[in-house]
Amino acid sequence: xxxxxxxxxxxxxxxxxxxxxxxxxxxxxxxxxxxxxxxxxxxxxxxxxxxxxxxxxxxxxxxxxxxxxxxxxxxxxxxxxxxxxxxxxxxxxxxxxxxxxxxxxxxxxxxxxxxxxxxxxxxxxxxxxxxxxxxxxxxxxxxxxxxxxxxxxxxxxxxxxxxxxxxxxxxxxxxxxxxxxx
Length: 182
Known about the structure:
Layout: H1 3-11, H2 14-28, H3 31-38, E1 46-51, E2 56-65, E3 69-74, E4 80-84, E5 114-119, E6 124-133, E7 137-142, E8 147-151, E9 156-157, H4 164-174
């Protein structure tokens, strides 16, 4: 998504966003649009769909096709889901949300991303992988197996090859004080 579109949506009132949701919902139910997608789907086809809970594309195989939905099986965990056609990313459209902000939020963070944060009780940096997203916090599983709920502003990305001093510089710039729950 473009920066301009995200910026416009951030400025919209709740009523405007709701109204837009209503219009988009009607467009998602448009029979001609549904038929265009359905005609490109075949049982046994390997494809991708966007999972809003994980905030990323998920690889799957189509098991069954119905009138407006398809039964899929995820490659990563074998679970089956009955999903609407509009969730299929058949044109491989980029799903990353680009914002001008350099902060981590629910739009930019994905399940599986490597992140770090400061435990405000011990003043130590902890590192782990995101296992779940909710509106205010991410659930992060650290190397000890503990899971922490950490608010988005308190997180920073952990990149491969970063040294501990690189992470310390990031933290000094952010002056993090997280409300973290064990």
